[in-house]
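dude i think i finally got it to work??
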Amino acid sequence: MNSTLTRRCARMAAAGALSVALLAGGSAAVASAASPTPKPSPSGSKYASAAPGSLTIKASVTEAKVGDKVTFTGRSKGLAIGSKVVLQHKKGSKWTTLHADTTIKQGSSYSLDYKVNTKGKEELRVMDGKTVSPTVTVTVK
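look at this
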């Protein structure tokens, strides 16, 4: 009889502790929903990433002739191996995706080639989802 009472008390104490923990966690969730954390403001471009990853970019040359192949290399941080990276160029005030892409390889690096076709200064960057690299400029003559 005494052991039954002890078990019953232990179960009630455990249920009470669990209830308190659930209520405390629930009120914390309600409090966090009521006061959302501020989002960081984007830096650089208005398309700057709020994603946890980052990309770098480097062009093999800073000057090229029309029709020359330029190789873009870089590294990623916080992005999955095998993620698709696309090359973009700035046309006016908009970024346009070019027909040049690759995947992030083991070691978090990438490399892609692009044949430049338009004379003038080309502002280029790479992008993976919402993660974008800084821009690099190639002057095409």
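The two ends are 96 Å apart (CA to CA).
im so relieved honestly
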